[in-house]
Amino acid sequence: MKKILFVTSEAHPLIKTGGLADVCGSLPKALAELSQDIRLIIPNYQSLKTTENVRFLSSIRVDNRNINLLETRMPDSHVIVWLVDYPAYYNYPGNPYVDEEGEPWPNNAERFGLFCRIVTEVAMNRINQDWAPDIVHCNDWQSGLVPALLSLEENRPATVFTIHNMAYQGLFPSASAATLNLPGQLWHPAGLEFHSMLSFIKGGLVYADFITTVSPTYALEIQTPEFGYGLEGLLEYRKEFLGGIINGIDLYQWNSEKDPNILQCYNAKSLNKKLLNKAELQAKYGLPVDEDIPLFGLIGRLVEQKGIDLLLDCLSEMVTMNLQFVLLGSGDKVYEKALQAFADLHPDKIAIKIGYDESLAHLIEAGADVFIMPSRFEPCGLNQMYSQRYGTIPIVRKTGGLADTVIDTLPETLRNQTATGIVFNEATPSALLEAIKRTLILYSMPDSWKKIQVNAMSKDFSWQRSAEQYLALYERL
C-alpha cells in the first residue's frame, strides 16, 4: 500500500471549473478502490461544497501566518480531504482563479504560493499527524512549486507532476519570487525563472521526479513548438521522465444502461431503443422527427481550440446534405452569433442552445448518431469517450487524447472489429468536410454502422485502468 498526497486546486464535486476537477475527483477514488492510502489536499474556498463533517486537524505557522488545516471526506467516498484554511486568501466568492469580471484574482501568486508551502509541510510530515506520504502527486500550475520546494528537502517523498493543459502556466512578474519568499537557489533560468518571469509550471517540469500528461499523444505534442508554449525544449530534455496516461471517465454517470437523464436506456444488444432518444432530441430542439436522417451533435466550449471555426466554414455545405445538426455550448460571442444565424436560416436542419445543461448533454450523447469534435488540440478530451459508450460515432481530429481513444474506420479496422469512429488529420474545413462525407456513406450501410457502434460500446474507458497505470508509476518511483 502506498501513501499518496494528491494535490489539486479543484476536484469534483467539491469545486469545478473544468476537466481538471473531473480527473482530480475520480482518480483519487479509483486509487482508494485499489486499496491505497490517499489524502487529497485543496484550498478551503468559500464556494467549496462539503457535505461531510468538517473537523479541525492542526494549525501551522508559515511566513508569519497562522494557517489551519481542516479534514473532511469526498462525498460518496472514503477519500480523506485536507483543506488549507486561510480566509484572507481563499474566502472569496465564486471561481477559484478569477473574479466576477473574469479577471484573475490579483494575489493569485500569493494564494497558490502559500498553498504550495503548506503542501510541502504536510508532505514532510511536519503537521503533527504522523502521516508521511511516499508519493506527492501534483496537478497543473497551481501546485507547481511543490516539487521545487521539496527538491530542497532531505528524505523527501517522490513527486509526480501532471499537466492537464500546457496553455495555462501560472506566470507572474519576477518580483513575485521575493514576495513569496522563494529560496534563492530556485530562482534562475534553469529553475523557476522563465523570460524574467516566475513560472509556477516550471516548478513541476524541472523538479518533479516524473511528469505525466493526460494522453500519450499529448506527451509527444508538448515537445513541439506548436503545443509546448515555449517550454518544448525543457520537455524534450526531460522526455525520459515524461509519459502520458489517458484519463478515465465516470462509468456510473455516463452509462447508457442506467442513465436517468435520457428517455430510454439501452445497450449494445438493444441499439434500436437508441432511436427513442433520437426522436426525443429532435423534438426538444424543434427539428423534424425522422429516424432515418443522420443527426450530428456537438457539446463544448465555443472557442478556437475546439475547432468551432472549422465547423462554421463547413455549415453552408452541410445544410445542402441529408443531415441534422444540434449544438450545446457557449464561449466566444462571435461564434455564438454566427451559429445562431445559421440556425435561424435553416431551422429544419440546424438547432443550437447557448449555455450548458447537464441532462441535455446526456440526451445529446444518447440521441445523436454522430458526435463532432474537430479540436485543434485536445490534451485528453472526454466527450469522444462518452460518445463511444453511448454508441454515438465520434468524428475527431487526430490530436492528443482524441488520437489515442478513437480508431479510424478503414476496411482493415472494420474487418478486425477495432473501428470506433472517423478520424481526420488536418485542422482545415476541407478535411472536416471530407470526414463528414465519409460518415454519411458509412451511415448509409446499416450493417457496418452497427458494427462500429458495438465496437465503440465495448471499449474500456474506466478509471480503474488509468489508476492501475498511475500505481505502476508510483511503484517504479
Protein architecture, described:
- The structure is a single chain.
- The protein is built from 19 helices and 18 strands.
- With 477 residues, the protein is an alpha/beta fold.
- It folds into 2 domains: 3-248 and 464-476, Rossmann fold (3-Layer(aba) Sandwich), CATH 3.40.50.2000; 268-457, Glycogen Phosphorylase B (Rossmann fold), CATH 3.40.50.
- The model has no long low-confidence stretch (mean pLDDT 95).
- Strand 1 (3-7), helix 1 (19-33) and strand 2 form a beta-alpha-beta unit.
- Helix 10 crosses helix 13 (358-367), helix 11 (308-318) runs parallel beside helix 12 (333-345) and helix 11 crosses helix 17 (429-443).
- The radius of gyration is 23 Å and the shape is elongated.
- Strands 3-4-5-2-1-6-7-11-12 form a 9-stranded mixed beta sheet, with helices on both faces. The protein has a 6-stranded parallel beta sheet with strand order 15-14-13-16-17-18, sandwiched between helices.
- The longest helix has 16 residues, at 108-123.
Short summary:
The protein has 477 residues and is an alpha/beta fold. 36% of the residues lie in helices and 20% in strands.
Beta-strand percentage range: 15-25%
Spatial gap, N to C terminus: 14 Å
CATH architecture of the largest domain: 3-Layer(aba) Sandwich
On the 0 to 100 scale, the average pLDDT is 95
User: Oligomer, anyone?
Assistant: single chain
- Rg calculated over all Cα atoms: 23 Å
**CATH-assigned fold name of the largest domain:** Rossmann fold
CATH superfamily of the largest domain: Glycogen Phosphorylase B
Number of helices: 19
Helix content: 25-40%
Structural class: alpha/beta
CATH class of the largest domain: Alpha Beta
